[in-house]
Specification:
The complex is a heteropentamer of chains A (572), B (367), C (339), D (341) and E (318).
Chain A (H helix, E strand, L loop, with lengths): L29 H4 L11 E5 L15 H7 L7 E3 L10 E3 L7 E2 L5 E5 L14 H11 L11 H5 L21 E2 L5 E5 L7 H5 L27 E7 L3 E6 L17 E5 L4 H10 L4 E2 L7 H9 L1 H4 L2 E2 L2 E10 L9 H10 L2 H7 L2 H4 L1 E3 L27 H11 L6 E7 L3 H15 L4 E7 L4 H5 L3 H6 L4 E7 L5 H9 L18 H12 L3 H18 L2 E8 L2 E2 L4 E2 L3 E2 L4 E2 L5 E2 L1
Parallel strand pairs in A: 1-10, 1-11, 15-16, 15-17
Antiparallel strand pairs in A: 2-3, 4-5, 5-7, 6-7, 8-9, 9-10, 12-19, 13-17, 13-18, 14-18, 20-23, 21-22
Helix pairs in contact in A: 9-12, 10-13, 16-17, 16-18, 17-18
Chain B lengths: L1 H6 L11 E14 L4 E16 L4 E6 L5 H8 L7 E6 L2 E2 L5 H8 L2 E4 L13 H12 L7 H11 L16 H13 L5 E5 L7 H18 L2 E6 L2 H7 L2 E6 L2 E7 H6 L4 H9 L7 H4 L2 E2 L26 H5 L5 E4 L2 E3 L14 H12 L6 E2 L2
Parallel strand pairs in B: 3-8, 3-9, 6-7, 7-8
Antiparallel strand pairs in B: 1-2, 1-4, 4-5, 9-10, 10-13, 11-14, 12-13
Chain E lengths: L20 H11 L1 H18 L1 H8 L40 H37 L1 H16 L2 H11 L3 E2 L2 E2 H33 L2 H8 L4 H37 L11 H10 L4 H29 L5
Antiparallel strand pairs in E: 1-2
Helix pairs in contact in E: 1-11, 2-4, 2-11, 3-4, 4-5, 4-7, 4-9, 4-11, 5-7, 6-7, 7-9, 9-10, 9-11, 10-11
The chains are: A alpha+beta (572), B alpha/beta (367), C mainly alpha (339), D alpha/beta (341), E mainly alpha (318).
The structure holds adenosine-5'-triphosphate (ATP) (2 copies) and magnesium ion (MG) (2 copies).
Chain lengths: 572, 367, 339, 341, 318
């Protein structure tokens, strides 16, 4: 490791690392604010590993942040987040499109011009039809179950439209128009001021209709980005090589320094850490940060710590307090939980200050516009809960001696388990007895915690939950977890506890509000309202401890993803 | 002993037999697969008939695998006969249900060959000998223990050994325990399957004597199964010789041993080594070749023809019936020896047979 | 002999059918008992974001509303005759044996299984070679030197070996020999290099799992061999061999070991069969992408078609191993007659 | 010097329950071409003796002392390796149960070939020819075909023949047959006894036949040794033993046997009790608890172990009773009973 | 005329002592120091399990009690100086600072309870079906044997994991630990019976050939009498031995299921569960060491004892 170079790195201007920047400073969090190891050297292979399996490599079917970060290597959507340090990474830049979207006056129609000269890996030029087709196919959730439904929900689709496969000959011009090969127009059901965020979604990465194999497309994706797939073994890994049809002239955002990428999936997570520390591996692609075992090592060794970064992501870990389950139908009982909780223990359970997160006092994470610091339930001086207040609340609720209820969590997630245990402990101090109920991750929402009937019948008063914004704005963060109308009896919903008509009204209001600041103010208001209702017990805003690769250049954290930016990176 | 005299030829004419076996057969199916498909049959006992009179001892001899044990187990209805008829004391018990058979079981008991496997190693002597009372639900005057101890004494065991386990006894003592068990219910008929063959000579004699004594004392009828011709001769009044599931000859002791009619009986007798070095040179021997054929595929017609030096065409085609050739002497052979009218003793019979038929000289050993 | 094999093959098929029926029944029934509906099952197919109506349509299409027996029939038919699958743009034929499509990846299960097989096979066969050599040799030596220091030490280690949970030895071995070590003995998990690609890497990646797995089994086999040898060395035919004037080495190896090896071979076959169906604990400890890991992952994700597939393949190996062992037995032991 | 001479052979086994004195001071001699029969009840030490001669107890737990001289060589003190080279070639053995004594996994031919090739440096082919020859000589039909059969494919008699062929394959000078016919049917037993007699004549080997069947020894032996509790109690020619037996145990054996060559007697004359434990051998004469004439020794039998003494012409008896009394008892009390009726 | 009492007490030398088979086995076992040590260890472990509350009480630590103040909240590891010591014999867990010693002690309860009950279940099913198959033979035997074959063809572990994974949290009128324990007992016990069933069937087949069974039948004894009075007493030894040897297998089985997260639910301490938690913290060796050793020692103890018992009850060694 380097000696203690001083001075913070200057935030680089844009588009990845500033060439020939000053000597990088190897210090803790250096990559949060600057580019570490800036270089323009081409060549070399970057090695990525994934502790789990990829949900899908298909642009129409992937819903993981890291995947969106990574997908930019092989696919080009209409817009993209800039490959830049810190806050700048939150900005949208045109990619396939020539510019950001042009809304109609009512913000119900958005038009994008597509660059000429962009080609698929087989040399076919990319046209607006390919983008349109890509969005249409992503409609089919039977084929692409992992994806989001933003386009499904907001575009003005013909009635009974079922997606590109099942409604083959249906005219979809009401939703997407392609007046010419290089223009695409989206028609929305309602005004949406921030449709540009939609346009950066991987679903707008063009897919050639004649090469589309539906569910199997992920086995061979036709690249538009600087890299294409060479070998792809689902469940084990894949390699990317240069795509010779990619024209840098059409693409100011990508440097495409390495000659290729090797990605293995389903690798032992501890091993990933050790290999990154040892320099055998460059990136833990999932960006979840080091595991508990490596955490101690990194933090206790100054040299190692200096080579690490600790970004916050837009993820909130929280506990839903289900007002349908007595006695949580009484707000004071919900408040008792808020007061009684030992936030330090909770933070430790989530992984501590560095790999768990920052203790959350409200819902909106600090990185999201509209965030405001407030704490309705001060947890005492040492952050370990205010037992007296909690008891008062219990008395107010008519349960002075506490009560019994259950807490659910995903069985496969040790941190959720630890957090549930921590809650069990701290609530136990005021007589609230929790029974732990682990459920399989796969069915957690669909069958158990997210199924209102089940939760009520089985007295699941508390449920561990987490939410990450799809993009840095209040809508992306709060809409899915506070709007009571997303609560469905079957299928599972992300919001499982917030049932407040006022909140619903506020959400509607925010969606209609085209003024950004006014809109953000409404989201702040929603945040406060939900906290007043005490339907949600925020735990932590996630932080991850990332270790920089020894071999990589241009290492910096992109705030949009809360992890290293995979686009600018090169090999030493 | 008194009864023995009656058993000599000429005795017993009118009395009804205690046990009568007619055309008894047992074919063990050879099965295969989950569905127990039958693919063949071991013809262990293949149509045998004999009577056992009250008070006598019938010996059943033959080489290994000829069906002796099976016969014994058939009579005691441990296995179900395939065909034929078993009549005990006038009652047809061939297919009598186990329930109806239970009371009769007091009358018919069995002594087993192996004194080591015939006693349950986990039961005490008291439990073993007392089992008949318990199973048959019999209450005895002074209690089971007393009764058991009396029986133990009867067979020459120390009644104080009531609480010991079988493994603490020697082979001979164990066989006595087994005998004690059969005696518990005061049976009338005892089937003894090789009661002494697992024992040393010196012990063997003890048990043989015991059996004889008990017969006199308790008025028992025996069917003694054995392969040792000397032992059988010693204890039997009448003897049946079996070969491959059939009785080939049945006669009173004297008739059988002094003038055997079936070549097989002859061969058997001459094969027994005589513990007298002087005689070994004098004796004429008949040496059978090879082993007993498999009961799965017994030779057709006369089963002995494959090893018989007198065999002729007819022997391979017509099964010789069991015929009475002399009073109380039945033989199943086309060319019997020593039949009345045919002169000569044992040795003469043999040489005469060989000379007269001139067949298969390989079967004899002139040495 | 031929009829025997045919009969055994038929029985093997019957057995696999029974296993598949039971597996099917359990995995398709128990979730329903646990409160799942055909909709919630279908929801797994179409994802969380699908609308209720889409879910309904999917449930109908996937036949989740049909009676169990119909569903099983479809499943079985897929294995025998293949099945058609709508993958979006068109319908594709999934050729026999078609074990259906994963809930999660939407890909046919069968090629997946074929893909995992080499990993498990490499693990199982590699470990088997080690444990057979080590276990049998130790067992023989122990038996010959019964009561000696070597015997007691070897049997002590063996007993410890069978008493150690493999997930414990596995992790400890990883911590000691692999994690973050400058001279790591092996790449711990996730990495599998096919042997035809790079034999050295293949072995390097597997050496630790091999040793750990082999240790467990070698311990068992050493005990087994020792017991077997003690028994055969007491047989009459050993006395005969000695009476012939054979030297002790020949007596031990040619006569003693040959006799003791038969039951060991049987157990070996069955163990191997069981392992080929997936060394669940070893693979998950070392993150080896084999059948066992596949099974665990499938179960974790409640990916029923995968679970069915892997269970059946595992059962197939056991049944197949049984068959081979029986046939082998007849070869090794001439007394055994097949007919 | 005799061809085979045992001098005070003792073979003891230390066990959990105590020291088993299986053979306790056994001496005898045997010449080439002669047959010695050893009889005795189960557990009297017959098999242990035979295995002891072949040196098969070595390396086990057995404690062996005394001397075994074979053709001028002492075997007890000889190295295990040396004794091994003698086994099979110089001395061979036939075991009681041929099925378990042959390896089930090798063909009969292989096992004979193996035996032959240890001592004869010949090719497999030659050895095979020899094996076929041997099988033919012991009377196995179609030896060239049966040479490739496995033991279980043979019938009991054939197996015993094969066993004999194996033992004789290297032309041994001493052949020990331990209960060679016990597992066989009478008719087959007779065949095997004939065979052994013929073979001994051809091979001119010294033969030891071990059995508990007096009939068998009478058929084969020149001399007979009666063992009881690990010791020799009587030794003599066949005639001596059958015509003029002098030991009460021998009388007991004779009296226990029903015989075909005599009239059936009313009662057998068994020996009372059961064979002695070899761990707690009865004091004095081991036979005294079962001996009908024990009182006539005036307590001597209980107190002292009798010596094995010669009565006349090589006839040895281990008994406290004076020779005269013994003869009188035999003549007056035993013999008449045996021939009664 | 009475039979001569020939065989009485003239065996020569000391009369045979009246020892039952159990006594003989016990004598042999007593001499086998290693097995005895195993046996004592087994007793010790059982006592630990039974008196877990007392033991833990004596050391003043609650297995569920968090000690967050002893944990460094940035690394989740115990703060330096708070490891193994008088206060916490085996140290504390990372993240929440629970006392490892008391969790190990309580873990013994679950481990042994499940192992014992599952063994009992296997033994009951296995013995009954094994005896039935062996005694009746024929079609009954065929069916039972083939059933065992089918059972043995199942990849048990996969199956157990799957089953334990899909059964909901309250079922069959049970909830919580009771449900989980019952479920595990059922799964483990149910899949293991064929092993014991095969052994018992084999033993019964050979026992059935013994003449004492015929003797009982010839006295008019019926099936149940023979099975229960004649056969079962002879099967006690193998059943005992194989149960003792099945227990450690089941301990391992339970640990494996807990390790894979489908065992008894947290926070109830289980050794396998602790071990799986420890994997994340492999840099804190004692966290992994104690549960690993607890499993190892328990399994070893039962194996030692079982081996010794087998040798002691071995009829061949008699
Ligand atoms: N339960 C059975 N199933 C099939 N075959 C049997 C059965 N019991 C006996 N046998 C066969 O029947 C034939 C006659 O057997 P059995 O036991 O009656 O002969 P044995 O004369 O008593 O012979 P040994 O002298 O050997 O006791 C043998 O070939 C035997 O293998
Ligand atoms: N290896 C041994 N260890 C301990 N005791 C032994 C051993 N071999 C034999 N014995 C004991 O020595 C005694 C004599 O055995 P041996 O086999 O010589 O008897 P035998 O006369 O051949 O009897 P049988 O007629 O039964 O074959 C027996 O009591 C036996 O238990
Ligand atoms: Mg019989
Ligand atoms: Mg012997």
């Amino acid at each position: 490791a380097c000696g203690g170079g001083s001075g913070s790195s200057t935030p680089s201007s844009s588009g990845g690392a500033a060439a020939g920047g000053s000597d990088s400073k190897s210090e803790f969090n250096a990559a949060m604010t600057g580019v570490v190891n800036p270089s323009d050297k081409k060549g070399g292979i970057l090695k990525f590993a994934n502790g789990g399996d990829w949900d899908s490599l298909d642009p129409g079917d992937t819903y993981y942040g890291y995947s969106w970060n990574f997908i930019r290597l092989y696919g080009r959507s209409l817009l993209m987040f800039k490959s830049a340090v810190g806050k700048e990474g939150n900005q949208l830049a045109p990619d396939l499109a020539e510019d950001l979207g042009k809304p109609s006056d009512d913000a119900k129609t958005w038009t994008y011009k597509i660059k000429k000269g962009v080609k698929f890996e087989d040399g076919t030029p990319v046209t607006a039809k390919d983008v349109k087709y890509a969005v249409e196919r992503s409609f089919d959730k039977e084929v692409f179950p992992d994806g989001y439904t933003y386009f499904n929900d907001f575009l003005a689709w013909p009635k009974d439209y079922k997606g590109a496969y099942k409604s083959k000959d249906v005219n979809t011009d009401s939703a997407i128009e392609t007046p010419d090969d290089y223009t695409i127009v989206f028609h929305l059901k309602q005004p949406l001021s921030n449709f540009d965020y939609f346009a950066q979604l991987p679903a707008t990465i063009p897919v050639p209709k004649d090469k589309d194999t539906g569910a199997k497309y992920k086995e061979h994706i036709i690249a538009t980005g600087p890299y294409k797939f060479e070998k792809n073994e689902i469940g084990k890994g894949f390699t990317l090589v240069r795509n010779d049809q990619w024209d840098p002239a059409t693409d100011p955002n990508r440097k495409a320094l390495p000659d290729g990428y090797e990605v293995s999936t389903n690798v032992n997570a501890d091993d990933i850490d050790n290999r990154i520390i040892a320099g055998d591996l460059d990136i833990d692609v999932a960006g979840i940060g080091v595991q508990s075992a490596a955490l101690g090592r990194v933090l206790s060794d100054p040299a190692m710590k200096a080579n690490a970064d600790n970004p916050t992501s837009t993820r909130l870990w929280y506990t839903s307090i289900n007002g349908n389950v007595p006695p949580f139908d009484n707000i004071d009982c919900r408040k008792a939980v808020q007061y009684a909780v030992d936030k330090v223990a909770l933070q430790t359970a989530w992984g501590g200050e560095f790999s768990g997160g920052q203790i959350a006092t409200s819902m909106l994470p600090p990185a999201i516009p509209g965030h405001e610091d407030f704490n309705l339930y001060p947890p005492g001086a040492d952050n370990k809960g205010d037992i007296n207040k909690a008891k008062e609340a219990l008395t107010a609720c008519g349960q002075p001696n506490g009560f019994e209820t259950n807490i659910s969590y995903r069985a496969e997630r040790p941190k959720e388990k630890a957090a549930a245990e921590a809650l069990q402990q701290s609530l136990g101090r005021v007589g609230i007895k929790l029974t732990l109920k682990p459920f399989p991750q796969a069915d957690y929402f669909a069958l158990y915690a997210g199924k209102p009937g089940y939760a009520k019948d089985n007295k699941i008063g508390l449920a561990m939950n987490g939410w990450q914004s799809d993009w840095p704005d209040g809508f992306g963060f709060l809409q899915q977890i506070t709007d009571s109308r997303v609560i469905r009896e079957t299928g599972g919903s992300s919001n499982i506890s917030v049932r407040d008509p006022e909140v619903d009204k506020l959400v509607d209001k925010a969606m209609l509000e085209t003024d950004t600041d006014a809109r953000n103010a409404i989201w702040t208001q929603i945040d406060k309202k939900v906290m007043e209702d005490a339907f949600v017990l925020p735990n932590v805003w996630t932080k991850t401890l990332l270790v920089r690769s020894k071999n990589a250049t241009n290492i910096f954290v992109n705030e949009a993803y809360g992890m290293y930016d995979y686009l600018g990176m090169g090999v030493k | 002993m008194a009864q023995r005299d009656q058993a000599e030829p000429g005795g017993f004419v009118n009395e009804e037999p205690l046990l009568s076996v007619q055309g008894l057969e047992k074919h063990f199916p050879v099965t295969k697969g989950l569905l127990q498909r039958q693919v063949g049959a071991v013809r262990a006992v293949d149509g045998i008939s004999f009577d056992v009179r009250k008070g006598e001892t019938l010996g059943l001899v033959g080489e290994s695998g000829c069906g002796k044990t099976t016969t014994g187990r058939l009579i005691t209805r441990l296995i179900e006969p395939s065909a034929g008829k078993i009549v005990y004391a006038g009652q047809d018990i061939t297919h009598m249900s186990q329930g109806r058979l239970r009371p009769l079981r007091r009358d018919v008991q069995m002594i087993f060959q192996d004194p080591y496997s015939s006693l349950n190693p986990r039961h005490t002597v008291g439990a073993i000998v007392g089992a008949p009372f318990r199973i048959q639900g019999i209450k005895t005057g002074q209690g089971t223990k007393k009764a058991v101890q009396e029986i133990l004494e009867l067979v020459g065991l120390n009644p104080e050994h009531y609480n010991r386990y079988p493994h603490e006894f020697s082979g001979g003592q164990r066989q006595r325990i087994g005998i004690a068990r059969t005696l518990a219910l005061k049976p009338k008929l005892i089937i003894a399957d090789e009661p002494v063959s697992a024992l040393d000579v010196s012990i063997q004699a003890q048990v043989v004597n015991l059996l004889e004594d008990l017969q006199g004392e308790l008025d028992l009828t025996y069917v003694v199964i054995a392969h040792d011709l000397s032992v059988v001769r010693h204890i039997s009044d009448r003897v049946a010789v079996m070969y491959l599931g059939k009785i080939v000859e049945i006669a009173d002791r004297k008739g059988l041993y002094e003038s055997p009619m079936h070549p097989y009986t002859n061969a058997l007798l001459s094969a027994v080594p005589i513990p007298d070095p002087k005689r070994r040179k004098e004796r004429e021997r008949i040496r059978l070749q090879g082993d007993v054929p498999s009961p799965l595929n017994p030779p057709p017609a006369c089963r002995f023809h494959t090893r018989c030096w007198k065999a002729q065409e007819i022997c391979t085609q017509v099964e010789p019936p069991l015929e009475t050739l002399a009073p109380g002497h039945q033989v199943a052979c086309h060319f019997p020896e020593n039949a009345p009218g045919l002169a000569g003793g044992l040795a003469g019979g043999v040489s005469g047979g060989a000379a007269s038929t001139g067949a298969v000289p390989a079967g004899t050993d002139p040495a | 002999m031929v009829t025997y094999i045919i009969r055994r093959l038929i029985w093997a098929v019957v057995m696999l059918s029974i296993v598949s029926i039971i597996t099917f029944a359990i995995f398709f029934l128990v979730p329903r008992l646990a409160g799942a509906t055909s909709e919630s099952l279908a929801a797994r197919y179409v994802g969380r974001t699908a609308s209720a109506e889409q879910v309904k349509v999917a449930a109908e299409k996937l036949g989740f509303n049909d009676p169990l027996i119909v569903q099983y029939g479809r499943f079985a038919k897929g294995i025998v005759a293949g099945a058609d699958y709508d993958y979006g743009p068109g319908v594709e034929h999934c050729p026999a044996p078609c074990f259906g499509y994963s809930f999660l990846t939407r890909l046919p299960v069968w090629p997946d299984l074929l893909d995992r097989l080499p990993v498990t096979m490499s693990l199982a066969f590699g470990a088997a070679v080690i444990w057979m050599i080590a276990g049998v040799a130790t067992g023989v030596l122990s038996a010959l030197r019964r009561g000696s220091l070597f015997d007691r030490a070897a049997m002590g280690v063996a007993l410890a070996g069978v008493s150690l949970p493999i997930f414990f030895t596995g992790i400890v071995s990883l911590v000691v020999f692999s994690y973050g070590h400058p001279f790591r003995i092996t790449a711990p998990g996730g990495s599998f290099t096919p042997i035809e690609e790079n034999p050295a890497m293949w072995a390097y990646n597997l050496i630790l799992p091999w040793i750990t797995l082999a240790f467990l089994y070698a311990a068992g086999y050493a005990r087994l061999t020792r017991a077997g040898m003690l028994e055969t060395m007491n047989e009459d035919y050993i006395r005969t061999a000695r009476a012939k004037g054979l030297n002790e080495r020949v007596v031990v190896v040619k006569h003693g070991l040959r006799g003791a090896l038969t039951p060991i071979l049987t157990i070996f076959g069955l163990d191997l069969g069981l392992l080929l169906g997936g060394a669940v604990l070893t693979e998950s400890t070392y993150s080896l992408p084999g059948m066992g890991k596949y099974a665990i992952d499938a179960i974790t994700n409640q990916d029923l078609p995968k679970v069915m597939g892997v269970t059946l393949v595992a059962a197939f190996f056991v049944v197949f191993a049984n068959l081979i062992v029986d046939l082998l037995y007849a070869v090794v032991d001439p007394r055994v007659r097949l007919g | 010097m005799s061809f085979l001479e045992l001098k005070d052979l003792r073979i003891h086994f230390p066990t959990d329950d105590g020291l088993v004195k299986s053979v306790d001071g056994l001496s005898f001699t045997l010449e080439r071409g002669k047959t010695l029969g050893i009889v005795g009840e189960s557990g009297s030490g017959k098999s242990v003796t035979s295995l002891g001669i072949l040196g098969l107890h070595k390396g086990g737990r057995a404690r062996i002392s005394g001397e075994i001289w074979l053709d001028g060589e002492e075997l007890v003190g000889a190295s295990q390796e040396h004794v091994r080279t003698l086994r099979g070639k110089k001395m061979a053995m036939i075991f009681q149960d041929p099925l378990s004594a042959m390896h089930p996994f090798y063909t009969v031919g292989d096992q004979i070939i193996e035996a032959y090739r240890i001592h004869n440096d010949v090719s497999k082919k030659v050895a095979r020819k020899h094996a076929i020859d041997m099988l033919g000589r012991v009377g196995i039909p179609q030896p060239a075909r049966r040479v490739d059969s496995y033991p279980h494919e043979f019938s009991g008699g054939m197996r015993q023949r094969a066993m004999i062929a194996m033992a004789l394959s290297c032309d041994p000078e001493l052949l020990i047959a331990d209960e060679p016919t016990t597992a066989l049917d009478v008719t087959v037993q007779a065949q095997i006894l004939d065979l052994m007699r013929d073979l001994q004549r051809d091979f001119d080997a010294a033969l030891i036949v071990i059995t508990h069947d007096l009939g068998v020894v009478a058929e084969l032996s020149d001399d007979i040794l009666v063992m009881y509790g690990g010791k020799c109690v009587e030794y003599g020619t066949s005639d001596d033993i059958f015509e003029r037996p002098e030991h009460p145990y021998t009388w007991g054996l004779l009296g226990s046997m029903p015989r075909l060559d005599r009239e059936p007697t009313e009662r057998l004359m068994p020996i009372k009790g059961s064979p002695p434990s070899l761990i707690n051998v009865p004091s004095g004469c081991a036979f005294h608890p079962r001996c009908a004439f024990e009182e006539r020794t005036a307590g001597l039998a209980k107190a002292e172990v009798p010596e094995l003494r010669e009565t006349e012409g090589g006839h040895l008896v281990r008994c406290h009773l004076p020779a005269e009394r013994r003869r009188a008892i035999w003549r007056n009390e035993i013999k008449p009973n045996l021939e009664a009726s | 005329m009475r039979a001569e009492p020939e065989a009485v007490a003239i065996a020569g030398g000391a009369p045979i002592q009246g020892r039952s088979l159990g006594q003989i086995a016990w004598m042999r076992l007593k001499r086998d120091k290693v097995a005895l040590a195993g046996g004592l260890l087994v007793v010790f472990l059982i006592l630990v399990a039974v008196f877990a509350p007392l033991i833990v009480g004596a050391f003043g630590q609650d297995p569920m009690q968090f000690n967050s103040d002893l944990i460094d909240s940035s690394t989740m590891a115990p703060k330096t100086g708070t490891g193994i010591g008088a206060q916490h014999l085996f140290g504390i867990e990372p993240v929440n600072g629970r006392d490892i010693f008391s969790r190990i002690v309580y873990g013994a309860r679950i481990s042994l309870l499940i192992a014992f009950l599952a063994t009992l279940l296997s033994v009951i099913i296995g013995t009954l079906l094994g005896v039935t198959a062996g005694y009746f033979g024929g079609l009954v035997d065929s069916i039972i044997s083939k059933t065992m074959d089918v059972f043995l063809a199942f990849p048990i572990l996969v199956f157990a994991i799957a089953l334990a994974g899909i059964v909901p949290d309250s079922a069959f009128g049970l909830t919580g630990d009771t449900l989980r324990v019952s479920l595990l007992v059922f799964i483990i016990g149910f899949f293991n019976w064929p092993y014991i069933g095969r052994i018992i069937r084999g033993q019964t087949l050979s026992l059935r050939e013994r003449e004492f069974v015929d003797a009982a039948r010839s006295l008019g004894a019926r099936g149940p009498y023979i099975i229960f009075r004649e056969l079962l007493p002879n099967l006690v030894a193998p059943v005992l031995v194989y149960s003792t040897l099945l227990i450690p297998t089941n301990v391992l089985f339970e640990a494996a299921l807990s390790f894979l997260g489908v065992g008894v639910r947290p926070p109830t301490p289980t050794w396998g569960g602790m071990l799986s938690d420890a994997v994340r913290f492999y840099t804190i060796p004692h966290f992994m060491f104690f549960p690993g050793m607890a499993i190892f020692i328990t399994v070893l103890a039962f194996n030692l004892f079982g081996d010794g018992l087998r040798d002691a009850l071995d009829p061949k060694a008699r």
